[in-house]
Write a structure and sequence with these properties.
The chain has about 170 residues and is mostly helical. It has one domain: Arp2/3 complex 21 kDa subunit ARPC3, CATH 1.10.1760. The protein is built from eight helices and no strands. Helix 4 (about 75-90) packs antiparallel against helix 7 (about 110-135). The longest helix is centred in the C-terminal third of the chain and has 26 residues, at about 140-165. It starts with a helix and ends with a helix.
């Protein structure tokens, strides 16, 4: 991870800028809000220590919170995702891929495993994010519809980014 620090810093800054400058301005009828900044957490190596995942997750969420004026909502959702990420990794990949310290991208995991990984991570993040944002179960089905539509849109963008980066 130390030798790739520059690469991860560029990914961090790039995803935060993409989210804040472009994707936060995309809203279709208030239902679709793509949040692809979580790709940073998803692409961290499998062998990164837990405290580093949680710290980077908080820093990522806090950055989005500052620019979006949402105090703590994104921070808490990204820390939850960072906390659950090792368990998600064990669900979708073999022990030897995790122990090698590979980066969980589409090239390393294959399409099917990366799709499962993305779907689980995005649904966890979006479910917590949208219900924390609503802070009520009064509009449960409205919030659930927002989660589903935003998740689909976010998953498509994340998969498209992987196809663009690893096009071989």
């Amino acid at each position: 991870m130390i030798k790739d620090l520059g690469k991860y810093a560029i990914i961090f800054v790039g995803l935060v800028l993409l989210q804040v400058l472009i994707l936060n301005n995309i809203q279709f009828s208030g239902f679709i809000n793509p949040y692809v900044y979580i790709l940073f957490i998803m692409l961290l190596p499998f062998t990164i220590p837990g405290y580093a995942i949680l710290g980077l997750s908080f820093l990522l969420g806090f950055s989005i919170d500052i620019f979006s004026n949402t105090p703590g909502v994104h921070s808490s959702a990204t820390v939850l995702l960072g906390f659950l990420r090792p368990g998600i990794a064990e669900l979708i990949s073999s022990r030897e891929i995790i122990e090698k310290g590979n980066t969980p991208n589409m090239k390393q995991l294959g399409f099917a495993s990366f799709l499962k990984y993305t779907i689980i991570a995005v649904l966890i993040h979006h479910f917590f994010l949208f219900f924390a944002e609503a802070f009520s179960f009064a509009g449960f089905f409205h919030t659930l519809l927002r989660i589903i539509l935003s998740s689909i849109f976010s998953i498509v963008i994340i998969l498209a980014s992987q196809f663009i980066i690893f096009k071989n």
